[in-house]
Design the sequence.
C-alpha cells in the first residue's frame, strides 16, 4: 500500500520561514506534489518534484530525496495569507496520473 | 478558460435519494479525476478518465457510485441511495497529458440528512 506522513499543525510568525515535511512509503514512486488549500476552498497546485533536489517558485520551494523517501515544502517570508492547509501527494508510475494525498498540515501564521 | 467548474456548489439530500454532480474541466485537459474529501483529511481518489474512457475506479467505491464522461468533455458523478457516510466534499480535477499537477474545481459539498 501507500502511506504519507506529515505534521498535522505548524505555527509560525509573519516574515519567518517554515518547513513542512512529508515522508512517504510507496512502491513505484514517480513524483511528489504539494497543494495549498484555504478553508472552504479548492486545493491549488504548488509544485512537483520528480528528481532529487530543490525546486524554487517564488517564496515557495520544494525538496525531494528519493533515497530517503522524504520531501519538504519551504515557505519563506511568511504572510498572513499563507495560513492554509498544505498537502503532499505521491504519484506512482503505474497510476496514470492518480495521486495519493496525505492528511495535510494546517499552517497558522501569526502577526 | 475559466478553470474547472463544478455544479452545484452545495447539495442537501435525504438519505436514500439519488444525487448527480457535474464537472466541466479545462477544455484542453484530457484527464479528469473525481476525489472526495472529508474534514481533516486529504482528497481521496474516486475515479479517473482519460478522454471519454474511465480507466480506473477506486476499490473503495461502492456500486452506488457511477461516473461518466460522454464525448470526453464534461463529467457527471452519480450517487444512488445516498447514505450519511456519503456526506463530504466532492472535488473534480483535470490535467493535461503527462503530469503537471491538477487543477481542482471548487467542489460540491454534499450533506445527507
Sequence:
Amino acid at each position: 500500500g501507500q502511506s504519507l506522513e506529515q505534521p498535522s499543525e505548524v505555527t509560525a510568525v509573519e516574515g519567518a520561514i517554515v518547513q513542512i515535511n512529508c515522508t512517504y512509503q510507496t512502491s513505484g514512486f514517480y513524483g511528489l506534489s504539494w497543494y495549498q488549500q484555504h478553508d472552504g476552498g479548492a486545493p491549488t497546485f504548488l509544485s512537483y518534484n520528480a528528481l532529487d533536489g530543490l525546486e524554487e517558485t517564488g517564496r515557495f520551494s520544494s525538496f525531494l530525496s528519493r533515497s530517503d523517501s522524504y520531501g519538504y515544502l519551504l515557505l519563506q517570508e511568511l504572510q498572513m495569507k499563507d495560513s492554509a492547509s498544505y498537502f503532499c501527494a505521491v504519484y506512482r508510475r503505474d497510476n496514470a496520473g492518480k495521486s495519493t494525498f496525505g492528511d495535510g498540515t494546517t499552517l497558522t501564521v501569526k502577526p | 478558460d475559466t478553470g474547472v467548474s463544478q455544479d452545484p456548489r452545495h447539495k442537501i439530500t435525504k438519505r436514500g435519494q439519488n444525487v448527480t454532480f457535474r464537472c466541466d474541466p479545462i477544455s484542453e485537459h484530457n484527464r479528469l479525476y473525481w476525489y472526495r474529501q472529508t474534514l481533516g483529511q486529504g482528497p481521496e481518489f474516486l475515479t479517473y478518465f482519460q478522454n471519454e474512457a474511465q480507466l480506473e475506479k477506486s476499490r473503495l467505491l461502492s456500486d452506488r457510485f457511477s461516473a461518466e464522461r460522454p464525448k470526453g468533455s464534461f463529467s457527471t458523478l452519480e450517487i444512488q441511495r445516498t447514505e450519511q457516510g456519503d456526506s463530504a466534499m466532492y472535488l473534480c480535477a483535470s490535467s493535461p497529458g503527462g503530469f503537471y499537477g491538477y487543477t481542482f474545481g471548487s467542489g460540491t459539498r454534499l450533506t445527507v440528512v
In short: The longest strand of chain B covers residues 88-95. Chain B touches chain A at residues 31, 33, 35, 40-45, 48, 50, 55-56, 91, 95, 99-107 (CB under 8 Å). Residues 38 and 88 of chain B are 5 Å apart (CA to CA).
